[in-house]
């Protein structure tokens, strides 16, 4: 819905966020492997995840709130609640 707004596909923040989401999968896989090996050295991955969350919370979410109506946001949340659990209830890409 955000990208359907004029100019948001090329100029909006979602291409960067989408790219970072692909990186997050890699960070989560790395964390998973380190946990399996009992390697506590996950500082780099944790910092990257925190940095991404701050970008979303400080930039993307407020921008979306400003460009969408309450009804549009309610529709998004309703759609999110209908996502099958098996699509999001996995620890990382290969597990």
What features would you describe in this structure?
This protein has about 100 residues and is an all-alpha fold. It has one domain (about 15-90). The protein contains 5 helices and no strands. Helix 2 (about 15-35) runs antiparallel to helix 3. The two termini are about 30 Å apart. The model has no long low-confidence stretch (mean pLDDT about 85).
Q: What is the residue-averaged pLDDT?
A: 83
Helix content: over 70%
* Helix and strand run: HHHHH
Largest sheet: none
- Principal-axis shape equals globular
Q: Give the total of beta strands.
A: 0
Rounded to an integer in angstroms, the radius of gyration calculated over CA atoms is 16 Å
In terms of structural class, how would the helical and strand content be classed?
A: mainly alpha
In the predicted model, the low-confidence regions spanning at least 5 consecutive residues are none
Characterize this entry briefly.
The protein is mainly α. The protein has one domain.
């Amino acid at each position: 819905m955000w990208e359907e707004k004029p100019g948001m596909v090329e100029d909006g923040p979602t291409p960067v966020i989408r790219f970072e989401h692909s990186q997050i999968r890699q960070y989560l896989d790395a964390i998973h492997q380190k946990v399996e090996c009992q390697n506590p050295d996950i500082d780099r991955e944790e910092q990257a995840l925190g940095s991404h969350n701050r970008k979303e919370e400080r930039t993307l979410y407020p921008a979306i709130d400003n460009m969408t109506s309450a009804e549009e946001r309610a529709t998004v949340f309703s759609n999110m609640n209908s996502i099958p659990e098996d699509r999001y209830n996995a620890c990382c890409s290969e597990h």
